[in-house]
Write a structure and sequence with these properties.
mainly beta, 38 strands, 36% strand, 9 helices, 6-stranded mixed beta sheet
Length: 581
């Protein structure tokens, strides 16, 4: 079975088969080490309202399933006594749209017993939350059939709860907290966020659950794309607790033999990952002593920047390709060198390195397209690579002295290629394994994340995110995820707004520009005021205004809901803007 086929087969269990619940064979994520050990929580769980009908019992049960505390006690209140004692939901959650139906079963599924009702829940699955706390976007029909029986006290209760938790989106987001668990890029000390979700209650165990995510390592899709500086035998000595002086104490074990530099990086992982769930000082201990000598308590401002390589500097205003030449987005002027002055190249598309010192261009040459790479403002050397079409180049940064990294493009929609700089300054192309993505469709856009760990891809008009996994002998785009499949289509361009958020341009009249997290859990359309559809290009970067191109020129906005404003330099309707990266 091919890799992407296996990917979709993994989720095939979500689809209804012969009237069975179409939820995965696993269920609610179990908190990693540190979950409230020694801190039993016994809240007064409210009983269901009296005299609920069978349909409402099922609806309320599904909503209550989003409350994970006390072993899903709130949901158990809707089960009969036997089911309430034996129900052990699995470790993956199915999240459904807020609009769902509960109806009596029809036909052969009806029951003649007046004290029993087969209730069918029908909804649209948005995806699953895996055991590692990562959300996987997959839009698919969901159907559950639950037997509801009248009890001796006259109340309806469920007798056959599903083997896995199912909950509406709003209830999920009300009870689970999204966190960024930080790991490191493969060949630099750039941090890479891994979006995860943990139970938000009880609050006392929240920080411990986040630390547990780090100890368990990156989510499945990021394995091989990032480094975890916490060694495999690292753990915590007891719980993550709050000291009397207010510091959050993280008592690590198994890290004492790490070098001083590695322990500082471990400190960065933990402090950055905890910043979304606590404002307390973080006291990092290793076997009872400070993790980093002379520095026991930490706040995020104590850390140096670990995203410098992944963020264009403020003195790089961005560029735009228009009429075969490259201009500055800052003042509208033609850039120096043959790419701007028109004396050498007819530019189809281009990409500037993050540090601004390099420029990769795709040029029209002899009826085909060809890649060139060189210093900004100077002649660019031709790469031994050409095709009928080539996607706009994209840069992967490295920590090398020249920062030149790699340049990626896709030839004829089928061959992903990375060009590597050799010691003599030339660029040599190598093929990237993209088999899993190509099964979705031909690739029209590929944008590497500025930390180098992921790629955003448009394949067959759909938006995907894949991990960039590197070995000594090869590079693979692995574990692709279609984001908002069935909802988002006609995607024509995409860029990285931040390390965990994308913006995309589409041909959809109702949502020509959208913002979407890299896990695809939600979709936020931008205001369409002032745009002349269709939008054909988009660019974004951390701390920058989003720039889109339509038939009228360039438009800018800072976020969803903001009205698009004309760019100071419109350049006409065939402009394609791009920030470094």
């Amino acid at each position: 079975m091919k890799p992407l086929a296996r990917l979709f087969a993994l989720f095939a269990c979500l689809v209804l088969a012969a009237g069975c619940a179409n939820v995965p064979e696993e269920s609610q994520p179990v908190a990693v080490p540190q979950q409230e050990l020694g801190q039993p929580v016994n809240p007064d769980v409210p009983q269901p309202a009296k005299d609920l009908d069978a349909l409402t019992v099922v609806r309320d049960f599904v909503r209550a399933s989003a409350q994970p505390i006390s072993n899903n006690a709130a949901a158990r209140m809707y089960l009969d006594e036997a089911a309430g004692k034996t129900w052990t939901p699995g470790k993956v959650i199915t999240i459904i749209d807020d609009v769902f139906a509960t109806v009596p079963a029809a036909g052969v599924d009806t029951t003649a017993n007046p004290n029993e009702v087969n209730v069918v829940l029908r909804g649209t699955g948005l995806g699953t939350l895996r055991e590692d706390g990562a959300f996987i976007s997959l839009r698919t029909p969901v159907e559950l059939k639950l037997l509801v029986r009248r009890q001796s006290d006259g109340q309806w209760r469920i007798t056959n709860p599903p083997p896995n938790l199912v909950m509406p989106y709003s209830d999920f987001t009300a009870n689970y907290v999204r966190v960024q668990a930080f790991f490191f890029a493969q060949d630099s000390n750039t941090v890479v966020p891994d979006l995860r979700y943990v139970a938000g209650k009880p609050q006392t165990g929240l920080a411990g659950r986040v630390v547990g995510l780090l100890l368990a390592g990156p989510s499945t899709s990021l394995v091989g794309a990032v480094r975890n500086l916490l060694p495999e035998d690292a753990n915590t000595e007891g719980n993550v607790t709050t000291a009397p002086d207010g510091a959050l104490v993280v008592p690590l074990t198994g890290v004492a033999d790490q070098t001083a530099d590695v322990r500082r990086l471990i400190a960065a992982q933990i402090v950055l990952s905890l910043q979304s769930v606590t404002t307390n000082r973080v006291r990092l201990l290793s076997d009872g002593a400070p993790l980093v000598d002379g520095h026991e308590d930490w706040v995020p401002s104590d850390l140096p920047s670990y995203t410098a390589l992944a963020s264009p500097s403020a003195d790089q205003p961005g560029l735009v390709t228009v009429n075969g030449r490259v201009r500055s987005l800052g003042d509208g002027s033609l850039i120096s060198g043959p790419a701007g002055q028109g004396s050498g190249y007819q530019v189809a598309s281009a990409a500037q390195s993050i540090d601004g010192r390099q420029l990769a261009i795709v040029e029209y040459a002899d009826g085909r397209q060809r890649l060139r790479v060189g210093q900004f403002g100077k002649d660019a050397a031709a790469v031994d690579l050409a095709g009928a079409t080539m996607t706009r180049p994209t840069w992967r940064p490295t920590a090398t002295a020249d920062g030149s990294g790699e340049v990626w493009t896709v030839v004829d929609g089928q061959t992903v290629v990375r060009a590597l700089r050799t010691p003599d300054g030339s660029w040599v192309p190598q093929v990237v394994n993209a088999d899993e993505i190509l099964q979705v469709g031909p690739i029209s856009v590929l944008r590497l994340s500025r930390d180098g760990a992921r790629a955003a891809v448009v394949a067959g008009g759909q938006l995907l995110v894949a991990s960039v996994v590197r070995t000594q002998d090869s590079v693979t785009l692995r574990a692709p995820r279609i984001l908002q499949g069935g909802t988002l289509g006609g995607v024509v361009d995409v860029d990285w707004l931040s390390q965990d958020t994308l913006v995309a341009a589409t041909t959809m009249p109702s949502q020509p520009v959208v913002k979407i997290p890299i896990d695809g859990l939600r979709l936020d359309p931008f205001n369409i005021s002032n745009l002349t559809l269709p939008v054909h290009a988009i660019t974004a970067a951390p701390g920058r205004s989003i720039v889109v191109a339509d038939d009228g020129g360039l438009w800018t906005a800072s976020d969803v809901g903001e009205v698009w404003r004309p760019h100071p330099h419109s350049f006409g309707g065939n402009a394609s803007p791009f920030y470094p990266g």
